[in-house]
User: What shape does this take?
Amino acid sequence: MNPTRTKLLALVGPTASGKTQTSLKLAVRCNAEIVCLDSLLVYRGFDIGTAKPTPAEQAEIQHHVLDVVDPVQEFCAYDYCENATRAIATILTRQKQVLLVGGTGFYLKALEYGMVGAKTVPTAVRQELTAAVQHPVQRAALYEELQQKDPAMAKKIPIQDTYRLVRALEVLRYTGKPYSSYLEKHAPQSPWDIVKVSVVYEASALKERIQQRTQDMLKLGFVDEVERLAQRWPNQAKPFQSVGYAQILSYLHGELPRHALEEKINAATWQLARRQRTWFKQVPGITYLDPIESSETFLTFGHS
Assistant: This one.
C-alpha cells in the first residue's frame, strides 16, 4: 500500500455471491457511498434481471454509476472510468469512504490501472459487425480474423461473447491496430490504492444461490420487465444480450418453452459466475473470505 495515495475498498466477486446485501452493511459501518462496478447496472430500466439495488436500498446508501444511459447508448470501460472517477471525487469531498461493488472485473482493471481509449468507432461499422455475428458461419470467420490479427485479444474472448468480439473487431478494422494494443497502455500510476475483498462460496453453494435468485427474480416479474423493455427498445441492444434477458427474449419470441426458461437462466448464470471466478483468480491482491467469517472481517477492512 502507498500511504500517499487514497485508499478505496472494493467488494468484488461473481454474480449471486451476496455483494449487494453485504455492501449495504459495510457502507453503513464505514460511512461509505457505493460506486457500482457493474456493466449492466448502468442501463436504465434493466432492474430485476441485474439485481439492481432497490429504491429503498438506494435511499439508505447513496449509489453511483447506475442508471446512467439508455440501452441503445454505447457505454464502455472508458465511459465507466470517467463516471466512476467523478463519483469518487464527489464522495471524497464529502469526507466519506468509497466502496466499489460489483462483478465486472474488466471495469476494476480499467479503474485501477487506467487505460488509453481507442478512437470512437462509427456506428455503421459496429452495426455491420453486430449483424454479421448473428450468423454462425460469419461469426466463425470473424473470430478467425481476430485470432489472426489480434491473437492476444482472441485468447481472452470466447467466440460466444458477442459484445467483446464486436468491440475488438470494430477497433481493429477502424483504427488498423489490435484492440489489445490499446488495453496494454496503462497509466503509469493509479491515484488510488484499491483494497480488494471477495466472499467465496463453494461451487455447489453458489449454484444453489443462483437457482434461488432466478426463482426470486421470476416471482418479482422478470418476464414482465423484459416484455415491457422489448416493446420500447430494439431487441438487439446490448443489455438484451445479457444473462436472463437473452433467455426471456427467446421465450417471448417463441423460441424457448416456458418450462425450460428457469433452467436456461440458471445455466447461463452459472457460466457467467464461472467466468467471473476465473477472472478474479487472476487479479492480484484479493483477500478471500468465507461467508461465515466475512461480516466481522469486513468491519476490520473498512476501518483499517
In short: The chain has two domains: 6-115+189-303, 123-183.
